[in-house]
Amino acid sequence: MSENKYVTRWIEQLNDSDVYVRRRAALALGNNGPEAKAALSQLCEALKDSDVGVRWRAAWALGNIGPEAKAAVPQLREALKDSDVGVRWHAASALGKIGPEAKAAVPQLREALKDSDVDVQGAASAALQMIG
Description:
Blueprint: H1 2-13, H2 19-31, H3 40-46, H4 52-65, H5 73-79, H6 85-98, H7 106-112, H8 118-131
Helix pairs in contact: 1-2, 2-4, 3-4, 4-6, 5-6, 6-8, 7-8
């Protein structure tokens, strides 16, 4: 039960005014993998944070939650259009880790194969293979 107490605290910290607190909260949630499923809606909101570091950590955290993060697919599809290459890479990677439940993102991942960044292209290719 102590794990839930920490997850609850990190969820609250995703709304902190201090960007470094928000970054650490997203990172901590990601380190908890599927245990952080309770943070799905807040991590989806964090994908729209003004700070790029919060956005990519939120995408990374959603990927670490794995298939349990299937409700985040619409937001991750949008994150594939982020202006930051790191956010796009982590969004593609997260969709791959969600797996077949992310099938709705296939059109956006196919588009990401044409991304200006080769690493995003690779992450999109890998995600498409993982989705099936």
